[in-house]
Here is the input.
Amino acid sequence: MHCVCVLPSGSSEPRRQDRVTVDNNNMGLLSDPNRRRALLGLLTRLNAPICVVCYMAGVAWFMGLAFEPFTLRTYMSENAMGSTMVEERFPAGERALATGREFAAHKKKTGGMPVDWLVRTMQARGLEVFTQSFSRTLPFPDENKERYMVKGTNVYGILRAPRAPRTEALVLSAPCSPGDENNQAVGLLLGLAQYFRNQIFLAKDVIFLVNEHDLIGMQAWLEGYHHTNTTGMDWSPLQGRGGSIQAALSLELSSDIITSLDLVLEGLNGQLPNLDLANLFYAFCQKIGVLCTIQGKLQRNDWDSVSGYSHAVQTMMLMVMKQASGRPWGDHGLFLRYHIEAATIKGINSFRQYKTDATTIGRLLEGMYRKLNNLLERLHQSYFFYLMPSLSHFVSIGYYMPAFGLLAVILLLRALDLWVQLMTPPPRTEDGVIDIEQSSPGVLSVLTPLVISHLTGVALYMLPVRFQEMAVEHFPVSETEAVVLTAIAVYTAGLALPHNTHRLLAGEGDGAGLAGAEAGRGALPGRAVGLHRPHQLLPGLHPGSHPGARGRLRHTSRPKGFVGFHLGHPQPGLHAPLFRVFLPRATGNARQLPGWLGALPFRHLAGHPGPRAVRLSGLPTDRPVGLSLLAALLEHPLLEVDASQAGL
Amino acid sequence: VCFSARSMATTAYLLSITENVKYYLLIFLVTPFALIKKKQKQKKQTRALPVKMAAPLTLLLLVAVTVRAALFRSCLTELIAERVEVVSPLTAWKRGKGAPATPLIIYLFHFLVDYAEVTFMLADVITAVALYMAVADYNKQVFRKQKYALEADRYPLDCLELIRSPKEMYYIPLKVAMFYLLNPFTILCCVAKSTCGLNNAIIALFILTTIKGSVLLSAIFLSLATYQSIYPLTLCAPALLYLMQRQYIPVNFRRFSFWWFIAQYAFMYLGSLFVLVCLSFFLLGSWDYLPSVYGFILSVPDLTPNIGLFWYFFAEMFEHFRLFFLCVFQINVFFYTIPLSVKLKEHPVFLIFMQLAVISIFKSYPTVGDIALYMAFIPVWNHLHRFLRNIFLVSCVLLACSALFPVLWHLWIYAGSANSNFYYAITLLFNVAQILLVSDYFYAFLRREHHLTYGLYLKRKDGSEATLVLK
Here is the structure.
């Protein structure tokens, strides 16, 4: 590399040509100053339009993904599962349903998991049967009843592989759900166990698992199987194990006859199993002739019509939303964390003309397990990141990332614009003196909001759960409320702080600015207030109930159903209109409220139904965006802020 | 109860401080050293860096040691020590079979194994202080040179904007120390007890002794650095150039004094290397360590993923091409020395920066600690910022990649849903960003020098504005 001063003038045309070609061969765009300048000029001048175009293009690209001609057909990538023909012979659907009814009867009799019956039945089918008991204290009481401690038992039977060393295993699980659900699934599971017992082709152990309490039981079993403990659950160690689990299916059937089978793929944190598992399911549904759905939506052939396209978009968007929620949408979701490909198969009975009986489902499962049994290594050939607009088509990561990239590049473009603005020399005033104060904001002004926002994030992440126990111990709030209220406190502080920072940095004189900011901070239910003096945030709390209480709370008026209060000295400009905050309805952990609080809206703590309004004054904004966002984050339907109630 | 909890937390913190007293003692041992140097300088020079700077440096060291001590006490230590970005098989504290350490390091930790944490912190502190002093000295020389050039009227008139003022150079040494000590990469490296920190300390001492003009010490530290990992060998070129410049020996192949100086330096270097190698032999009683350590570095048998370029390439390659591509890859580190030395023979310190960067990009088992060392030099080139072109983009890419490393690692190794391609893509991007960063600095440096000779506002022959192009 040489640094050369090139003097390309209009007179020397050949030389200019030469230069351009050389640049093309070298680093091109990044090294040619003329083109760089042109590009930068374009980016800064047309920044907003380019960003809008990028945004539109990103959204359009994403929406286009659901259009069938733009997607790929699913195909089986794994050779071990693709080439072998399997003939399914499972005959005993009716008997499986009978077993399911027997299971239902025993379940009703014991009022939970019929452990003894299951152990006996599995043993009678020739399995090695083990049980695992587990218990977990829940952080929140259940919606229906106060169920702090969940106790349960998992029952599983291992069918040892007759043909191979027992180094690998497959799992078939069915949850033991309360009520009349999933009895047929357990019946079919037992029927398949009996059928597989008599087959000679199995080269992998098959583990038949009936788990209690859905995800909790499944997590306990998986932790026990893999000797890990990530959730702090108490479980008894497993007495018997198979090999390393290669794949797992979770079965949910609630009726004798079904119309279609639904495939659920979304696992914990949006993780997906290998696409080959979905391909396998789809291939067998096609072969056996069972209607299959994904996201509960049938596949349609009219992709070129508007309704057909919107159907595909809906299916795909449902998958995106389910992944974004982060929670497992079936018991299979927890397997994925242990690097086990898993899916849930749900029977749907929607009274259509297509009817599928238990024998057919059994044959389908048999076929899938026989193919999985052929696996030489874990499923890895196909995609792990995909979206499915229908079961027969998929969008791989290579197709949907450009849409994300187009959206993400906007951030970079905006930042680039700001950067270029910073880099351009500051305008000189008439005296020829550069106004340094204006042109270069100090490090402090950049760092402070950054640090504050990160601190708020950390506080939001850590504090609600940390302070839950303490809050419940000292204040008449339930666990659920403690978390929500701490989050509100942190968030309110977050709303207050940028304002103060601005004042601090704008510098209304050093001392005055600081004092003002301090006063403002004190006046608000800031983070510190929310954590150490929760009574200031909650009108229903007695200040004396906390050692850190200060005499800031002034009870100006106490009409029924309404508390107006000022926190500290009112700051002009800080007071937004009054808000109405509906606190979540709490049922559990009711406490007796002290004295005068009886007249206050916090009465609902004592078990009264329905959301009640509590008015909080002094929230430093008139936009309720923040709090409703918080509500959405917490998935708490009852927490809402209604700005229209202002001035009541 | 809340208050008691808080007071308990405070007490715990105080306890942890008292527990960490030994680390603070260490600082107080080191800082007077720096202080004394400062005082001596002030006597000699009017525009010397003032004593006042020692206080911020002490504070910086305190903060750095506190952060490290806190991290050593936290539960993150194990996690960090396992990260492939932070430790390579060559520098890891816990090693598997076949991952070698040089005999002297093993011997050193034979005594210091109980004080490993202190040792690594001390190494970081030494590196920072050495870089601080080296850069302070270098800046003084730069300033002196600039003064002579100004007095000789060598700069074009419109270049006054490019002249560096003592005011802007005042905080550079402190910034260098800060860039090294508070760089998350360095902190991670120290907490993981990666021997990379020790290598960095040796290289920093080498830089310091070179800049101070001590030929013997420079050769000794260079041989130590070479002994630790072969690659610092390429630093002998800038060292020679610098020392010759300092002793007014012209870089001329036909002059006897030139060859005589090279012979002297080579004798000292090879002599101390010989002593080190023999010492290792007497410690171990066999020569086995030579192939196992240096063979390990050169033939790259361990293909554990890291932030370098080797592992993926050699994992994918057919075995019979291996030797050829090994040569191609290894030659990268050494090859750039020649053109860079030719181009930068007037500016050996910038050459050191370039060489360190090239080593950290192209070496066989790079870790983030290597990157931290050359990144510490970035404040020294503050005056080049107006000529940098891609710094924003490059720093964005570097930041994004640093964040993506653990994410993609998790997806690949734990979740099993990504594969090695994802991780290698990020590795590649990270290295491309580093190369862009370094070439950007190179371009900016050359361009400034060009302007200092030909004037800031270049004109074409016909009088319109011209632009500089890097070819």
